[in-house]
Structures are given as structure tokens and as C-alpha cells.
Amino acid sequence: MATEKVKRLLINFKTLEDFQQFKEVGAQELSMKEELEENIIENDSESPFYGIYYGDRLVARMCLYKIESKYDQYFDPPKGYLELWKLEVLEGYKHKGYGQALVEHAKSFNIPVKTNARQRSDDFWNKMDFQPVTYDPDRDRGENPFVWYPAGVQPQE
Amino acid sequence: MATEKVKRLLINFKTLEDFQQFKEVGAQELSMKEELEENIIENDSESPFYGIYYGDRLVARMCLYKIESKYDQYFDPPKGYLELWKLEVLEGYKHKGYGQALVEHAKSFNIPVKTNARQRSDDFWNKMDFQPVTYDPDRDRGENPFVWYPAGVQPQE
After folding, report:
1. Fewer C-beta within 10 Å: chain B N or C terminus?
2. Which is nearest to B90 in space by CA: B52, B144, B48?
3. What is the DSSP secondary structure assignment for residue B22, as one 8-state letter?
């Protein structure tokens, strides 16, 4: 395990260039770039991204977003949770525990975590102690949610 | 163009078996299988999926879900829209217009369509006359939304 390697990423032009190596890149990264260029956010602002560097190369990342309790449709008590997305490890760096280190970091905040498990990644999430939810079409709308419950937290009825 | 080939899929054991060929399969399909097995839904019920068959093989599919106007954060007037997801064409059947036929079918309902463009598919969506939105972190939470505006519909301010 290499949890200690996980860093909160700073928004700057190097980070944004690093992001281009990942497959799941889109509006969010573009928006950060525009905000940086227009000085809406400062260089080296903290981002919602966490990553692992190998040397000075960003080789794994994830995004964590706090969902407020009033929007919490997954957990009881509904105190809010972390939505984890864009978990991705670059080719050539997979199967070295980087994905696991990022997920452990998300769990270390000790509030519930939810993700949308993609493309047959169920085995990975099970290994991370995440569980599938009972699918609710109105809530989940095609997603494949896996959740992690800290002690004392249960599925919302 | 082959719009006429698009069929609304019926939920039955063959359809659910066909779904296993697609990469993006998860809680939604599992839930449909359980509901069918437990007679909560009837065999051959209409599903939210649309697909294209090559012979009797399902080779392309998408899911359409109507978002009610009160949840419409994208369009003005906010009259509700179709969320399009799980658009996927099987290997060996790509680049034959099947994906385009499905998207044209979604547009044929003549209400706005929104999708979460994934893994560098922006060029495809642009070709389909979809447009990226101005990223809003609270609304879009890491998604990469592309939308299609029918005549008379504009982005929500």
C-alpha cells in the first residue's frame, strides 16, 4: 500500500497538461483551464482531484466531490458523502496498487463514498469493500453505483 | 442512414442475455433480470432501451430516460428532456452508422437530449449536432455533458 503517496492536486498548467494523458477528460478539465487562464481561479489553487506521481509524472488520479446531506439519497443517517469519479491509472502503471491507494485515501475521510462502477469493474470495487446498491431507476438512472459504508452508516431505505 | 432499424427493446431473457455482450452492463440490467425472474415485470415488457439487430443479434443499443421538467437544469424552456446513456456498438459493427441511427432516433422525439460524452467522443457528438454545455460543477459533477437543442430551445441561464 502506498496511501502516503496520494496528493491533493494543485490547479496549474502542468496539472492540466498532465490531465490530457487520461482517457476520461472533458468539460471539467476544460473549465478549470479557462478559469485559470482568465484568473477566475488562482494558479496552484486546490482542486477536487487527488493523484499519485511517479517521479514528476502524474500516473493515477481521482476526483472527490462532497455531496451535501440534503442531496444524500444513499446513506442513513444522510449526512452527506463523497462522490468518487474519474478514478484512472495510466497504462503501464496498472496493477501496482495505485488505484487501491486512491480509494483508501477516499475512505480515510471516514464519510460514506459512492461511485459509479464502470465497464465491469465490480470485482475491483468488491475488493475495496464497496457494495452494490439496490438499483432504483429514478435515483440511479443507468448508473452502476457502488458504495462504501463507514461504521454506523447503513443504506437509506 | 438506417433509422428505421431502431427498435424499442422488449425485456425478456434473450434481451438480457444479449445485454451481456456490451461493456457497459451493471446494476440496471441486473435489476431488470431480477424483476423478470420474480414476475415484477412481465416478459416482453417495454424497456427504456432501444437497439439495432443484425439478423437476430443485438449489435447496438442505447437507453433513453425522460427527465421531468422540474428536474430540468439544462434547457430553456425547461420542459423536460431525454437523458441518453449506454450508447454502445459492439466491436465488428462500428463505423456502419448504427450509433448515428440510434442518436437520430433519440432526436426524432423532438425534445431536448442530454448525454454524458465519454472517453473522447466529443467529435462524434459534434457530428450529431450536439453541443458542449458551460460546465457547472454543482450540476455536472465531473460529467462531460453534450446536449441537443430542438428548434425553439436554448441553454438554461
Report:
1. C
2. B52
3. S
Specify the DSSP class assigned to residue B156: -
In chain A, the number of structural domains is 1
Which domain CATH number covers B94?
3.40.630.30
Task: Note the pLDDT tens digit of each residue in B73-122.
Answer: 999 999 899 999 999 999 999 999 999 999 999 999 999 999 999 888 99
Residue A93 belongs to some domain of the structure: yes
**ipTM reported for the complex surpasses 0.90:** no
Residue A1: what pLDDT? 47
Which residue numbers in chain A have pLDDT < 50?
1-3
**B51 within a domain of the structure (yes/no):** yes
A68 located within any domain? yes
Gap between the Cα atoms of A136 and A58, Å rounded: 36
Print the domain residue range for A43: 6-155
* Domain assignment present for A39: yes
B23 touches chain A (CB under 8 A): yes
Q: Determine the pLDDT at residue A138.
A: 85
Chain B partners within 8 Å of A85 (Cβ): 141-142
pLDDT recorded at residue A2: 46
Contact B142 A86 (CB under 8 A): yes
Q: Cβ of B72 under 8 Å from any chain A Cβ?
A: no
